[in-house]
């Protein structure tokens, strides 16, 4: 079993100008690694992370989009697996951080912590599917996963983290949204 | 025969699908995000699906449209969410969070399922139809009833205002548009 922040550190080592969509606990841990203009946190409703990511991927096929979604969030939008697979954006990497809990909502368990999200993504029709439970394996393959033709799906099986502090005004700061939009208008 | 090609009671008032589609195109809409709706199925969704000028994204549940449209907006791409009013009701929290609180120009074209077009939606005997406009009012979302051909002229200005103000808009389709 891995730790989410270790996974994100491994991921960050391979990232450049990708747009990263993250919410709740994933957003908090991701932001701990440093500010990036190309972070997208203003998802607005639990579960919509993957849908926002699809919109970004369709709107900017010249950029890679990485979605860091919690397992509870994906459960609220399971249909997005089918929608994404059908839309088939080659530039979308969809990672689901599976800790078996609604961590931001009091740490209660999701209805079935043993849910096989990778199997769901494979059945929905994702082009590439991975399931990581060992940090060494993820560290070794993260760079490759980020470059694959998508849609790419990866489950990151992690343990529950220490209690986090959720600074939503900072995450949802309108200035952050404006900066992201301005950055996307500047073509690379 | 497709379900959307069956004939409803004809009150002689026309709403041409082709006129609505022309207005959508004139508004710069590139992406159509949709769950099928029997009101707009034959007159809008089928021709849109055949039209190479649109990119149609078929989604599983209506609230997905709200997230996808927001992501597209960050990339300066215009999208129209084409759903029925039951899907709008199901998507209220997404519309609240993304469209209203984060001030995104989410443009929704909403078929009023089982609405009698000879009555005002607020006076509909159908509870689900009757509550749509009051909910939009409570959320502060501008809305326009598209009930006959003369109403089609409202579409482009409504979408332009939504993008200019970065705020959502709802276009309520009060009768089945014809497939012509």
Explain this structure:
The complex is a heterodimer of chains A (188) and B (180). Chain A is an alpha/beta fold. Chain A has helices at 4-12, 24-32, 49-59, 71-75, 79-87, 117-124, 135-147, 168-171, 174-185, and strands at 19-22, 39-40, 65-70, 92-98, 101-102, 108-109, 128-132, 152-157. Chain A has one domain: Rossmann fold. The termini of chain A are far apart.
Q: What's the multimeric state?
A: heterodimer
CATH topology of chain B: Rossmann fold
| Average pLDDT taken over every residue of chain B | 94
Helix content of chain A: 40-55%
Secondary structure: number of strands of chain B = 6
Percent of residues in helices of chain B:
40-55%
Q: Domains counted in the coordinates of chain A: how many?
A: 1
> Largest inter-chain interface?
A-B, 32 and 31 residues
Radius of gyration of chain B: 15 Å
Strand order of the largest sheet of chain A: 2-1-3-4-8-7
Radius of gyration of chain A, taken over Cα atoms and rounded to an integer in Å: 15 Å
């Amino acid at each position: 079993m891995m730790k989410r922040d270790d996974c994100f550190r491994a991921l960050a080592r391979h990232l450049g100008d990708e747009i990263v969509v993250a919410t709740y606990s994933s957003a908090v841990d991701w932001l701990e690694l440093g500010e990036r203009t190309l972070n997208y946190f203003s998802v607005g409703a639990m579960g919509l992370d993957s849908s926002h990511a699809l919109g970004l991927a369709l709107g900017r096929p010249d950029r890679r989009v990485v979605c860091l979604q919690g397992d509870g969030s994906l459960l609220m939008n399971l249909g997005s697996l089918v929608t994404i697979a059908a839309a088939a954006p080659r530039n979308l990497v969809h990672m689901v951080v599976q800790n078996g809990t609604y961590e931001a909502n009091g740490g209660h368990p999701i209805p079935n912590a043993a849910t096989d999200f990778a199997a769901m993504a494979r059945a929905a029709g994702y082009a590439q599917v991975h399931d990581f439970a060992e940090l060494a394996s993820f560290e070794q393959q993260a760079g490759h996963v980020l470059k694959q033709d998508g849609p790419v799906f990866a489950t990151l099986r992690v343990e529950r983290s220490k209690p986090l502090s959720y600074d939503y005004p900072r995450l949802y700061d309108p200035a952050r949204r404006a900066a992201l939009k301005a950055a996307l208008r500047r073509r690379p | 025969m497709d379900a959307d090609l069956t004939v409803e009671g004809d009150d002689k008032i026309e709403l041409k699908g082709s006129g609505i589609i022309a207005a959508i195109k004139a508004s710069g809409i590139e992406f159509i995000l949709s769950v099928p709706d029997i009101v707009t199925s034959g007159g809008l969704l089928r021709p849109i699906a055949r039209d190479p000028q649109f990119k149609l994204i078929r989604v599983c549940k209506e609230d997905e449209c709200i997230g996808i449209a927001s992501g597209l907006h960050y990339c300066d791409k215009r999208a129209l969410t084409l759903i029925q009013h039951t899907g709008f009701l199901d998507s209220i929290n997404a519309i609240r969070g993304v469209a209203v609180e984060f001030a995104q120009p989410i443009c929704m074209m909403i078929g009023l399922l089982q609405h009698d077009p000879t009555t005002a939606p607020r006076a509909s005997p159908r509870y689900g139809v009757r509550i749509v406009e009051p909910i939009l009012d409570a959320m502060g979302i501008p809305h326009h009833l598209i009930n006959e051909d003369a109403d089609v002229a409202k579409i482009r200005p409504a979408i332009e205002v939504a993008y200019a103000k970065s705020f959502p808009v709802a276009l309520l389709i009060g009768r089945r548009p014809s497939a012509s």
